Amino acid sequence: MRRILSKILIILILAGMLGGGVYYMFFMDKPLRDLGYTAAEIEKLRAHKITDKVTIYNPGLIAALDSEDFIEENMEYYISIKANTDVTKDINDLAKKYTIEEVKSLADVLKPSDLYALVFLDKINDIELYKQYYIKGYDYQTSVTLANDLNSQYAKTLMDLPLLEYKEVMAYLTYSQKGFSPQFIEYFYRNFEPEDFIYFRNINHFAELEGLVQEDGFRFERLARYIWHMNRYQTSAAIAIANINDDYDVDEDVDYSAFYHDTKTISVSDPFTVLVNKENRLPADYVPENLTEIPGEYRDSNEPLVQEACEAFTAMCKAYMKEHSTPIISYSGYISYDDQKVLYENRLAQLDDNAEELDRLLGKEGCDEHQTGLAVNITEKGTIVYDFPETDACKWVKENCREYGFILRYPKDKDYLTGYRANDYHYRYVGTEAARVIKKFNWCYEEYYYLFIEH
What architecture is the 256-452 domain classified under in CATH? Predict the structure, then answer.
């Protein structure tokens, strides 16, 4: 009898065990199996008592349970962050920056790969704002920059604009940091081409700008003149626009010698952007670095240019030669302070000491930007420089020089600003971006320098 009872008991135990196994396999483990977990993986989840917390198939979680970097306290992070590979260490680092609530909030909108990649970026200061940027379409890195560096007052305007490219976003950020209002930035974005919006981030911050752009008749190409007028006469934006649009500031009878009245010797902080004219004299000992001889076929004299300008001028000459048989050449490049002095005195003697006549075209020592090594007088081979304006080559150079970083330094109708009579052969190297903008808005270098460099 006892043997029978023992057998029955063993059978019942085995049946219970079998039933339990069947229960786990077909009922309790079914949700996990439906998610894609194998029996071995389910055992790992059960060993850590987290089977009831798992709602998705997460290879990263399984990897974490086997990882030597596993930290028990970070279990909720492993569960909440879906990953297809072992990112246990990254998740541990993420846990040092963010609470589990913050991670869950971010996980609601971020792709898993973007979520655990946040460990490599600065901590997000405003999670909710970050999520708004991300939802709008900015990538996880750009969204961090915006959430941390863009003042919240600018956020709404940015959200109302179309999705900006990365360079446009960085420009928007720069505008805000300079103090331009959200309304002004929006005006710039909606009224200018993307490349201009990006480039104009470099513009100096003028308080006058905010009022000017809202006035009827505002023309961006006259911006420097508006501001000069407002400051000189303490006028309103509306009056400045009305007066400048009527060319109130234009002096039709320019006194070229008068520009020397306030001449000052300058120090050169940036040899590529320096402004040299009759009011800004270079020191007598200033010699630019990296002076380089222009290739013989593209010069009439042995006056060099700064290497970058020389290479750009050579490229322009080669481009011209692809379409023409006669080359354009340099008639004059770098001229030292002492040579300028001799040149000026010799020409003055030839004109019977008529300085007024000479000052229309030639600068005194230090006031001639040929000393920078960035200025070049251009002509067509076989043509004297004063006849260059009558050639097709002159038209080609005017139209194409910006592609090589050069500007016509003394353009028509700007002599009251430059202090020199307009001519079509004197060019200055400023780099391609600056040259494009100067050409587009018909500025002389004095205007550009004031808007982008001086302050």
Answer: 2-Layer Sandwich (3.30)
- Cβ within 8 Å of residue 375, ≥6 positions away: 333, 368, 369, 409, 426, 427, 428, 429
Enter the DSSP assignment of 152. Answer: G
Q: Where would I find the H helices in 150-289?
A: 155-160, 166-178, 182-191, 194-199, 207-212, 223-233, 237-245
* pLDDT tens column, 71-104: 999 999 999 998 999 999 999 999 999 999 999 9
What pLDDT is stored for residue 11 in this prediction?
A: 56
pLDDT grade, residue 455 (50/70/90)?
confident
In single-letter form, the type of residue at position 126 comes to: D
Q: Kindly report the number of other CB atoms within 10 A of residue 342's CB atom.
A: 12
The per-residue pLDDT for range 233-265, each reduced to its tens digit, is: 999 999 999 999 999 999 989 999 999 999 999
pTM for this model (two decimals) = 0.84
Question: For the chain, what are the domain ranges?
Answer: 1-35, 45-128, 256-452
Name, in order, each residue with C-beta under 8 angstroms of 213's C-beta and a sequence gap of 6 or more: 184, 187
Q: Helix or strand or coil: residue 109?
A: coil
Cβ neighbour number for residue 311 with a 10 Å cutoff: 16
Q: For 95-154, what is each residue's pLDDT tens digit? A: 999 999 999 999 999 998 899 899 999 999 999 999 999 999 999 999 999 999 998 889
114 closest CA partner among 131, 97, 89: 131
Long-range CB contacts for residues 269-272, cutoff 8 Å, separation at least 24: 270/453, 271/306, 271/372, 271/374, 272/308, 272/374, 272/429, 272/430, 272/431
Which residues on adjacent β-strands are paired with residue 432? Answer: none
Report the alpha-carbon distance of residue 233 to residue 231 in Å, rounded.
Answer: 6
How many Cα neighbours within 13 Å face the side chain of 233? 16
Residue 197 burial by CB count (10 A; 0-12/13-18/19+): exposed, middle or buried?
A: buried
Give the Cα separation of 222 and 261 in Å (integer).
26
The residue type found at 79 is I
3-state helix, strand, coil in the chain (%, to 5): 60, 5, 35
pLDDT band at 330 (very low <50, low <70, confident <90, very high): very high
Mean pLDDT of 384-392: 92
